[in-house]
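note to self: the first set is below, dont mix up w the second
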Amino acid sequence: MERIEHFEYFIGPQHPGVTGNMSYHLWARGDEIVKIVSSVGYLHRGFEKLMEYRFWIQNVPMVPRICVPEPDVNEILYAMGVERLAGLEVPERAQYIRVLVLELARLSAYLFYFAGVAGALGLYTIPQWAIGDRDYILDLFEELTGGRVYHIFITPGGVRRDLPPGFKEKVRKVLKHLKDRLSDYDRLYFDNALFIKRTKGVAVMTKEYALEMGVTGPNLRATGFRYDVRRGDPYLVYPKLEFDIPVTGGGDNYSRVMQRRLEFEESIRIIEQVLDMMPEGPVITKLPNPFRWKIEKNDVYVRVESSKGEFGYYVVSDGSEKPRRIHVRGPSYTHGIQVAQEMAVGLRIADVPVFLFSMDVCPPDIER
């Protein structure tokens, strides 16, 4: 009788143990993972190439698809790239509104993240809470932009429209609800003995390894390295705002989750300042005919801090009505393929989904 050396397992694309439409092929000896290989290609692909065939303005509704849980990050990057190439000045009020949108999107993405990790641990009440609380933020986006998921609101030159009447008060109401809810999340989730036991000391990433592999964002800060693009390479009106860059430092699943728990509060703090400090004025600068808009030959790299790590766009113009080249540098390729395929080896089968969710991967970012 042939001896079985290992078992093969598949997580995704239909399995809830992975963050979206991608798959992992695992080999285990007993309960220990000995090999893991990622598999992508289940989603829409080729965003970068498609953008070369469209007028500059036509790419605005396309880029949000590159990361669905936090689409506004791609909107701001594309807008910033075009603005720097074209020499456009963005009105100050529009910059504050952009920060408001980006931080609301960060809160929404973190609630989605908390739900995913909790679901992988079997704490099924938390996904119900988190998705429900996220809906309050989606309600705000629907009123502001007309869309709940894809907003297509940040555009070269500013934003599509001003805040509707009473919108600030509605944002403050949602923020108060989220702040009050955090104590409930702490009691049932973050201080839960099961959560702590299942995540502390599991899938530990050192600071040195994170820097060597190009890990960014909350995953990097969770190893003890204090860096945030909003502080290191400021953009919009972030230099005018007061907020901390928390660092947990354990480098394990627990630290990655708690890193985002701390940053959740900082985003609320940022939004409150934006609402207080936002000046009056225009929200978009006048643009030329978008279908005859030729941008001077040049290239530029722009980057921002997303909930998943550093996002960057390299935008090249050859002086025509369409981009010559756009390259997207998202964090998910590094976190979801290179790091995941190394760090998952040696984990228990039940810990793999928790680890993968803790890395917060966005599959369409890989397939861009």
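second set (the one i keep forgetting abt)
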Amino acid sequence: MNISNTHKRALLGLDRTQLKAELDAIGEKPFRAKQLWHWIYYQGVTDFSLMTTIARPLQEKLAEHFIVGRPGLSREQTSKDTSRKWLLNFDDGNEAETVFIPDDGRGALCLSSQVGCTLTCQFCHTGTQRLVRNLSAAEIVGQMMVARDSYGEWPSPRGERLLSNIVLMGMGEPLFNYDNVKKALQIIMDGEGISISKRRITLSTSGVVPMIRQCGADLGVNLAISLHAVSDELRDVIMPINKKYPLKELLQACREYPGSNNARRITFEYVMLKGINDSPSDARELVRLVKGVPAKFNLIPFNKWPGVEFDCSEALAMKRFSEILNDAGYSAPIRVPRGRDILAACGQLKSDSEREKLSRLKARREQGIEDDHHPNQGYS
């Protein structure tokens, strides 16, 4: 069912206050909101008739007014390294991708926050795709729900779980969609629902300094910074956001981030670009820059794509870079690329689906077929 063609209110993505208001509007008591919250976010149920603690007349009443739903699923792919990627579609025909990276019995779910990206980082293929719009809180939470459906992790596990961590590192800059990201994460963190602890959630930002402070105050999740350069001169070129929020301001915001300490260190992500940012002197400057910040590093081999001018650093250069950071007392593993064969690696999201869409459009035009807008099925 496409909700754009129905009067029914979608419940996915509503917070507790909004859920109570919706039930009040149909004459139901506030305690019903707690029941629905349990069934939607703890049990993962989308069919009101399966909510067995709710009497049949009320089940029917709820079905008349509401739907729970999920984003539509255009495609699900599993990599040879067991990473999994979902291409999700929404009511307006737009799409976004979500990736799960397993790691020894558990793993991290990488959520997107925007359709496309507002940034133009020179080394990121995702960033070459124009920003279409922000994702709603429902569309962000919906990514988590689809992943749990795929792995059968309902009801919410209380002990060990495969989908153990969340990283806001997918398409888009989460701090440019802060209100929706905040609402989605508060739903995901709720202990009576999906129940992912803030200590298992990491938000990655390119450096939106004012919102870093806001995020720390409101959410207190782990922070990751897409750094990738040790000078303003280079960062201005490869990450233009640096012109607005230069390194000095960015690193000061990191020093002030609430809750960061040696047990909860800020992660600095650093993509390794051959001959650009991978010299021993760059590594030593990186050590100097982060002085006073409880920090660890994630060194990312560059994932090359057609037309890009950069190359991945040589293995020896990456090893030397890592050793310099290690010798200074920092953890600095070189990330093993995952999901490259399904374009699920860092900086690759949606690039394959976007190319396919453009190819289909070009073929239609060459055949003289007019473009029709047929929105993909969204929440159903």
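remember for set 2: Residues 1-5, 344-349, 358-362, 369-380 have pLDDT under 50 and may be disordered.
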